[in-house]
Amino acid sequence: MSYDPGALHAALSAAVGDDSALIADLRVAFMESAERQIDLLGRARCDANWELAAWRLKGLAASFGLTALMALADEAAEAAPGDPRVLRRLRAALAVLQQT
Fold first, then answer.
1. How many domains in the chain?
2. What is the dihedral of CA 93, 35, 62, 96, to 10 degrees?
3. What angle do CA 13, 71, 27 make, to 5 degrees?
4. What pTM was computed for the model?
5. Would the pLDDT of 5 be above 90?
6. Domain boundaries, position 62
7. How many Cβ atoms sit within 10 Å of the Cβ of residue 32?
8. Which has the closest alpha carbon to 30: 53, 2, 63, 74?
9. Contact of 49 with 68, CB cutoff 8 Å
10. Are 38 and 91 in contact (CB under 8 A)?
């Protein structure tokens, strides 16, 4: 599954136009929120907390049209709490999105 960091920029541009300062602010807000949900996944010890963080991450990704991240969040929701493979993949996807 590939992650397109340009998709985030395109979604932000479509939402706010050419306002580069607003795009930058929204990008920071997105990344902070995504990092927060992945951190919550990493600390979840029960199914309910794990699923809630995964669903929030999916909703956040959906808000920006990031379908690959949505699919990965779906996979996380189905995995066992604390699944290290899923957490690694989520962190790697976020790192790719951070690059632009």
1. 1
2. -20
3. 25
4. 0.86
5. no
6. 5-98
7. 10
8. 63
9. no
10. yes
Calpha distance 33→53 (Å, rounded): 11
Residue 40's identity, in one-letter code, is L
> What would the pLDDT profile of 29-82 be if each residue is shown by its tens digit?
999 999 999 999 999 999 999 999 999 999 999 988 899 999 999 999 999 999
CB distance 49 to 83 below 8 Å: no
Residue 24 identity (one-letter amino acid): A
Find, among 35, 68, 28, 71, the residue nearest to 53 by Cα: 35
Q: Hey, what are 93's tokens?
A: 């996807």
DSSP states of the chain as a string? ----HHHHHHHHHHHHTT-HHHHHHHHHHHHHHHHHHHHHHHH--SHHHHHHHHHHHHHHHHHTT-HHHHHHHHHHHHSPTT-HHHHHHHHHHHHHHHT-
